[in-house]
Design brief:
Length: 351
Amino acid sequence: MRAGRATARRFDTKTLTVVGDPVTLSEGEAGEERGLTLSASESGVVAYSNAPDIRTAMTWYTRAGAAAGTVPATGRVEWPELSPDGQRVAYGELGQAFRWDIWVTDLSRGGVPMRVSSDATQRAAPVWSPDGSRLAYSGTREGVLDLFVRQAAGATAEQPLLRSADGKFATDWSADGAFLIYDQISNVTGFDVYALPLTGDRTPRPLAQSPAAEFQGQLSPNGRWLAFASTESSSPTQGSDVFVQAFSAAPGKWRVSTAGGWQPRWRRDGKELFYTEGDSMMAVDVRESASGFEVGRPHALFTVRMFYDAETYRTQYSVTADGQRFLVNAMVSEPKPPPIVIVLNWAALLK
């Protein structure tokens, strides 16, 4: 990809050098940074398709589903995260060269956006520290998605939290500040939920790990319970379900969703869980009990066409502490499937 177009160049396998000038293979408006999927065959045929033009807006919704305004942003956004005091929202925004940066919009000042990261490294999926002073996120400084932290004001350099061979996405920060919850992408078990201690020897430990995919880990406000999505019991139509288990090694796991679900979020008092089931925002009463954990009957609050991220699996909405308002990365319009374009004898362009 170069300036939004697919580009080919001859390569000499003996000298391991490129030869001649680059040749543009795909059509499209120069400068578009929406991405492109391309496949080349040995017969001289190329098929490609531009990514759909996805337009979203961080939109406020009440529990009844009434739209209540939007949060200003300068471009396409993902992963909105409200600060603990509800006065700011951190998110990823797509910039030049199809690169994601971390931004923060100050809601108390009428929605003033500020870019926190601003170099050539990809950064994604921010989460707030409990005091709202720092942001943890994923970055590709070493070529793989590692975990970093920096001041939310962006005045200081980022610091590495965890580097390893597997990709990682932060999903939550415990209320006591002791643990960062994150998804790890393994070549063996796929998506798993881990906890990174932020003190002591800082050795990560798996919380939910199996041949199924476990992701979107969210720790309860009192730190005792972990909510997450898993494909372990899903059907082809449901995809995944929401579960709760003890954060400690204690046995027991409770299924929260009844007809599929993901993207769990806790209410600040820990007495209600939210998740999405298709386009429905769901809520369910939960409580601790002598037997461990009890789950009520899920019910739909409202429906909204939310953007779903099939690459990071990061949650695309945030909820206020009292559970009364939801900040959703909502689709502005339904994207039209782009056409598949066939190019014949494309190698002739390189001669």
